[in-house]
Amino acid sequence: MDLLTELTRAQHDPAVIEQVRALLAQAEQAKQWQAKQDARLAEKDMKITALTLELAYYRRLRFGQKSEAFSGEQRELFEETIDADLAAIVAELAPQDREAPKRQRSGAGRQPLPPELPRVEHRHEPASCACDACGKALTRIGEDVSEQLDVEPARFFVHRHIRPQYACRACGTVTAAPVPPAIIDGGMAAPGLLAWVAVSKYTDHLPLYRIEQIGARQGVPLARSTLAEWIGKVGVALQPLSERLAELLRTRACLHADETPVRQLDPGQGKTRHAYLWAYRSNSLDEGPPIVVFDYQTGRAGAHARAFLHGWQGQLMVDDYSGYKAMFAAGVTELACLAHVRRKFFDLHAANGSPVAAEALRRIGLLYAVEQQGAGLAASARLRLRQEQAKPTLDALHGWLLGAAKTVATGSGTAKAIDYTLKRWPALLRYADSGTLPIDNNPVENTIRPIAVGKKNWLFAGSERAGRRAAAIQTLLATAKLNGLEPLRWLTETLEKLPTCPNSQIDTLLPFTNSTQP
To answer: 247 CB contacts (<8 Å, ≥6 apart)?
Structure first.
């Protein structure tokens, strides 16, 4: 029974009752206002937490020293600067102090030079075979050998082909050695030069104008238009090899896939627009040589991936991009990347030291420790190891995530990381039931990384055709690197053999260590 009812029954003064009613109404309004204020504060606190997390993430990217803060190239740049500055200081001190201390580095010590490099011997004999002290003859007791590394940068030279012509006096027939087929008939560029231009552009990421400048410094005129023509013709010649690699890739049971944006010139608009370089890589735990194939497309729609993998059925390791979902509905088995899960918790822990994120990272680290332990094992032994150690760890992680999800605020960064992991759990779990499936998508991301660095130099693709040509050439050069081949040497030999190689033997030219066993 409330206060107003009691006052009415007691027949109190109506004015008093009205006054009490007004006070109660004010109290209710105050209560509702306070509830709204509490809700607003909770919303603002959540927004502040999210912004703090985002701010800490970008500060770490900009100023951090953690392993995931900078790329390897950035960290090496800082180390190179320190080494160069210290060497300059020592050189400046050298005239005054020959005993100037040298910087001690971990793992310091001259590394042996590769034994396969050619050696040019220089023998340094004493000025006299007589002893400087007593004048008697010297006897050889040994020798001191030291080695210095040298280089000949882009040494241009000319192949001069001379074909004597012979005539038959009896019938007048003229005979000469035939001109062998070449990638560019009648062109002045030898296979080695064509390969150097292609590798410089697509592996070392040098724009053609810089290659033109390198030639000019040595007095060799290499017009940019000529270089572009060579690249176009080399791309056409290599296209069948790239297409064959794509065919072989689609015979593998497990693949990695990822994509990275690139800029494409849009002449009609006077600016550039987004295009995408899709990357598909074989599973490094499968048998057979590693293969990576780049597919240039003008968009990021999932239809591009479906078109490239048309008819393929297997396990596909990808991130959570929705463009792949249609393939999973059509029978392709989804594999989820544990590195993406780890990255979300890493960012969370780096931002605010979250104990939940720290525990998640510890548990994920146990799974990667199992993978390191099984790196050199056969598939059957790796499966046994995963079943004995990774599977229980995954089960424990799943139970812990379900419990942690109940203790964190809805919509917080921790909740989002946990939800992301639980949503993809069936796909994350599949690798543990196989001895050959990968744990993450890092292999294909590592093949894309050089492209991401290089596009800062070449800025944009000039056209869709140029993008497809670049993808074909980069496919071959990247696959050569994965197989331990030196790209320039492989491409030079391939351009020499390609004009006379029949289609039935095209597999012998593929960039594998043993090209007869694709």
So the answer is: none
Measured CA to CA in angstroms, residue 223 lies from 153, 166, 191 at distances of 20, 37, 18
Show which of 235, 252, 276 is a domain's final residue: 235
Tokens of 93: 């001190």
SS3 call for 297: strand
Among 235, 261, 286, the domain boundary falls at: 235
List CB contacts of 452: < 8 A, sequence separation 6 or more.
260
SS3 257: strand
Which residues constitute the domain of residue 6? Answer: 1-30
Token readout for 470 is: 């670049």
Residue that has been written with the tokens 């409330």 in this structure = 2
Which pLDDT tens digit goes with each residue over 271-318?
A: 677 788 999 999 999 989 999 999 999 888 999 999 999 989 999 999
Instruction: Examine residue 452 and state whether it is found in any structural domain, yes or no.
Output: no
Please give the sequence-ordered ranges of beta strands (E in DSSP) within 439-479, or none if there are none.
none
Contact 285, 378 (CB under 8 A): no
Q: Are 281 and 292 contacting, i.e. CB atoms less than 8 angstroms apart?
A: yes
Contacts of 172 (CB under 8 A, 6+ apart): none
Amino acid at 218: Q
Question: Is residue 153 in a domain?
Answer: no
Radius of gyration of the chain (CA): 34
| Side chain identity at residue 54, one-letter code | E
Per-residue model confidence as pLDDT tens digits over 168-186 = 988 889 899 988 888 888 8
Give the total number of structural domains in the chain: 3
pLDDT digits (tens, 9 = 90+) for 87-143: 555 565 555 554 444 445 544 556 788 888 889 898 888 888 888 888 888 888 888
In a domain, 188, yes or no: yes
- Model confidence at 33, pLDDT cuts 50, 70, 90, reads confident
Give the list of residues 6+ apart from residue 378 with CB closer than 8 angstroms, or none. Answer: 435
Q: What is the pTM of this model?
A: 0.76
Angle between helices 464-482 and 191-202 (to 10 degrees): 100
Which letter does DSSP use for residue 286 in this model? S
Q: Would residue 408 count as lying in a domain?
A: yes
Dihedral class, residue 311 (left if φ above 0, else alpha if ψ from -120 to 50, else beta): left
